[in-house]
Amino acid sequence: MSTTTLPRRSAQDPYKLGRHASHGGGGGGEKSTGHGDGGPASTFIVVGYGFWIFLLSDIIMFAAFFAAHAVLATSYDGGPTGAQLFDIKRTMLETSALLLSSFTCGMASISAAQRSKFSTEFWLLVTGLLGAGFLALELTEFWGMVAQGAGPDRSAFLSSFFAVVGLHGLHVSAGLLWLGTMMAQIWLRGFRPDIRRRLHCFSLFWHALDIIWVALFTVVYLLGAA
Length: 226
Description:
mainly alpha; Four Helix Bundle (Hemerythrin (Met), subunit A)
């Protein structure tokens, strides 16, 4: 009677952590995956996961503003419509600046992983300049609309427009302050583990703002101009 010999299991299980991986804060090292007997995930992973939960709560808030605008999008009260107010070319320029800043933010993350201080600072600076340019275009748009008598108190449509677009602008402003702080910390203290975690969270935040803007550009501007 023949017997079948099962393949011998590899001595090194890729899903288990060795005891040497338990160094570092938060119950695990920076390279811990959270699988097997190596203990909980690293602080880097835990912080990133927690920040994703915050971003989801922020997206829920934006969803409420989007829903309000969808209801009030045609409540003009005899005032100007989106087709009369929106300059799609200007908005496309804003979109290009913000999407390009997402690319440069990604380059900064890659440079930080390589511990290149000059390259990281350079890409963060470019990201900040593009974000500032986006805000300048948005504020110019707001100022022009108010000057035409199309302020947020003119109609429900304009109230919801200023609310949802302004909310996104406030997030970009907060992101620029955060970016400046990160540049100063990297310049003075280098790539400490806590600074790398903060930079990772900033990158998640900035990319999330770009995703929200794409939805905002489509729902508010393109459909409103149509």
